[in-house]
Amino acid sequence: MVLQTEFAQIKNNNLYIDDVKATDLAEKYGTPLYVMSEGHIRHQFNKLKTKMIDKYENTLPLFASKSFSCLAIYKVAKEYGVGIDCVSAGEISVALKAGFDPKKIYFHGNNKLPSEIEYALSNGVENLIIDNFHEIELVQEIAQKLNVVVNGVVRITPGVYAGGHDYIRVGAKDTKFGFSSHDNTYLKAIKKVIDAPNINFDGIHCHVGSQIEDVQAYVLAMNKFVDISYEIYDIFGIVINKLNAGGGFGIAYTEADKPLEFETVVDTIMEIITKGFEARGLKRPMVLVEPGRYCVGNAGITLYTVGSSKYIKDIRDYISVDGGMTDNIRSSLYAAKYDAIIANKAEMPTSHLVTVAGKNCESGDILIKDIMLQDSQPGDILAVFSTGAYHYSMSSNYNQLPKPAVVFTYEGKSREVIRRQTFDDLVYYDIDSTY
Amino acid sequence: MVLQTEFAQIKNNNLYIDDVKATDLAEKYGTPLYVMSEGHIRHQFNKLKTKMIDKYENTLPLFASKSFSCLAIYKVAKEYGVGIDCVSAGEISVALKAGFDPKKIYFHGNNKLPSEIEYALSNGVENLIIDNFHEIELVQEIAQKLNVVVNGVVRITPGVYAGGHDYIRVGAKDTKFGFSSHDNTYLKAIKKVIDAPNINFDGIHCHVGSQIEDVQAYVLAMNKFVDISYEIYDIFGIVINKLNAGGGFGIAYTEADKPLEFETVVDTIMEIITKGFEARGLKRPMVLVEPGRYCVGNAGITLYTVGSSKYIKDIRDYISVDGGMTDNIRSSLYAAKYDAIIANKAEMPTSHLVTVAGKNCESGDILIKDIMLQDSQPGDILAVFSTGAYHYSMSSNYNQLPKPAVVFTYEGKSREVIRRQTFDDLVYYDIDSTY
């Protein structure tokens, strides 16, 4: 078992997060509880700043906010000078409510709705990642109507596959995202963007995958994108302004994961891009990357209260907790693996092989299959690590379970950034209607 | 393609639901939109009434409300004299707000929290499905404190496996639910319930699986449960009051599914139970079943607006819609299959092999892989069938997509029973907090 963040510590048999005792958080805010170490989050955003923004001029890391979108995270992010990528008008709306600069918002998506494009453009968003031909027409039409010019970065599928579960694969040829590079589709798209009077063709984007553990994936993709950039120059006489290398920055969920360091990826792609453009006599474009999970994944620790248990002779021992697939769909959706400890028995031996079940009424609601844990009793607090990305953002009210609160911790203190839902919230959208 | 409900019709090239034109619903309420045929729902609840309650005395079908829980459905359900099963205090709270009789609520779950048990018992819920040893202690303690006596039906895993995706398998030996029957665990549990002064040992419960297409699963389980009932009589001298045969009543999602008729299952289990108890000289207990999907699954049709498309040479054609895994997690979670049509081109030939992608920023967000559809253009309305169960109830705000509205249709009219979320709703729970 590893804590997966230096901002968690074990002292006197107890787990602490940013020097706040886990059991105190559980008592104060209830369980299940999403705890996010603001210390860890700031440490990660600071890496984005120091290892990319400060180190290489004309670069911008974008926080991929689908991993964790709420007012509080955008307020922290903007302190570090990073941009964000948003995948819907809803995400943009939350970012704007948090005071995020619309000029630093990059709008993504395979099916941006007309209403979303209009919302974005009306609210000062100027950077779009252009995904498909229909979108070029829509953006042109709406930008013209609103009398604005937007920057369009064209998303190209590099045909490079890397990392993660099959569900989170992108970049391969068979994907709903972007324009294919295995024929001349991407060149037609770029031509169409160049010809659109209200879209400024601004560059190219690729996304190689998720949870990438091999830097070669970036090497291959960036070499290909340098070639594509020169091809664009060769055909259209345009030197691209922006090269967006996408996301895929992994984290460790368990000791089996060997994620790349952020700086390893950044240094690698900066060298390839810088040298590649230099060799071809072109000005190096602005370089962007899109880490999401990397910024917040290991910051998250979900606290649960242990409840019932079940010992099935010769088969399996279950312990159940007070959350489940409602607050963590990744276990069942991606067969994702996690580390965990009993937070109030953190220095006891991990002597029990158990399966941690959620409380949802569904056999598949298993949070962790087969983990060595401390001996646990009802009322003990289970801490599951690395739940900061794609947990709150994917949470549901299945089984009418209220969503947990989200609490940030920092330097010995805590604050609630998203409150726990109540039973009344479960019918907040219901209407007593008649025909 | 089949419509999967007789309450949907195709007229003049258009899909109608309860005689309401699908495109009119899309225009009036927006898309994506969960449309639920109240005609279909009433038809199904009426089957529960006529094929079970009216036909066999001392029986009670329970609507498994995790499939679709909201005020409106409980109000319809109660008109038919059925009970409901609830799997959380949240579900109970919604049912009670809808005016559902607490005496007809059966409380399920592998990890009922102390707070949930207290909530249920304080609000007049008297029937619990007892799942594990820890729960027996909790229920006894809380019932004693509240000075009430509750009915406890003991959930026993029959060791029979049937139907559905591996994730929705239950009843097998390796499950988080209930007491094992492959050793004497269930007898120890029954003894403990009998000895608990504030729990009235009321009977036994089994759940064989989900989406069961072979009546033999019920035959095996019920024969075993008749034997177990006699064993209970033999050992403890108690004739059980209730035998709950659980759920598993399937529906057709596509033409490949061959669900059992409700009456086939009911007639089969009633015959086995009646004859089995008669042969052993025991009074036949009250018989309960728990259909959920069966009541509401085929009633649901999700309407989407078609947006972008992508044609990847020699690989695949994608069309994208304005919803996705946020409103339908079953496609990615269970690899569930669906039928669909272009609602405003319903009589055009299904000449195009396409893959329907959702708009969530995730490669795995594919609603339907490889389906023959009518030629579609942006703005067309795609209708996906059989989305009434486990769709709204499992929906999320991933990508900060607002949840769709739910609309009921009936005899040519429509009404909104759950309103669409707004962008403001996306930050409704956010707190502007400081340390």
Automatic annotation (TrEMBL), chains A, B:
Residues 39-296 form the Orn/DAP/Arg decarboxylase 2 N-terminal domain. It comes from the Bacteria. The active site is at C361. Pyridoxal 5'-phosphate binds at G248, E290, P291, G292, R293, Y390. Its cofactor is pyridoxal 5'-phosphate. It is an enzyme of class 4 (lyase). Its EC number is 4.1.1.20. GO terms for molecular function: diaminopimelate decarboxylase activity; pyridoxal phosphate binding. The modification N6-(pyridoxal phosphate)lysine is found at K66. Pathway: Amino-acid biosynthesis; L-lysine biosynthesis via DAP pathway; L-lysine from DL-2,6-diaminopimelate: step 1/1. Keywords: Amino-acid biosynthesis, Decarboxylase, Lyase, Lysine biosynthesis, Pyridoxal phosphate. PANTHER family: DIAMINOPIMELATE DECARBOXYLASE, GROUP IV DECARBOXYLASE. Homodimer. Belongs to the Orn/Lys/Arg decarboxylase class-II family. LysA subfamily. Specifically catalyzes the decarboxylation of meso-diaminopimelate (meso-DAP) to L-lysine. This is Diaminopimelate decarboxylase. The lineage of its organism: Bacteria, Bacillati, Bacillota, Erysipelotrichia, Erysipelotrichales.
